[in-house]
Amino acid sequence: MNTRHLHDPELLPLIDNMPSFSWSDATLPTIRETFAALQPEPAPLPAGVSVEEIAIPGRPGEPDVRALRFDPPGTPRGLLLHFHGGGMVMGRPEHSIDRNASLSAQLGVTVLAPAYRLSPEHRAPAAVMDGLAALLFAAHHTPLERIVVTGDSAGGLMAVSVVAAGRAHLPGRVALLHLVYPMLDPATGGPDCRALPTSGEFLWTRQSNRYGWDAYLDGKDPVAAHVPAALEDVSDFPPVWIGTGSLDLFFAENLRFAARLAGAGVSVDMNVYSGAPHAFNIVPEAAVTKRFTRDYLEALQRVFAAE
Question: What is the CA radius of gyration of the chain?
Answer without folding.
Answer: 18
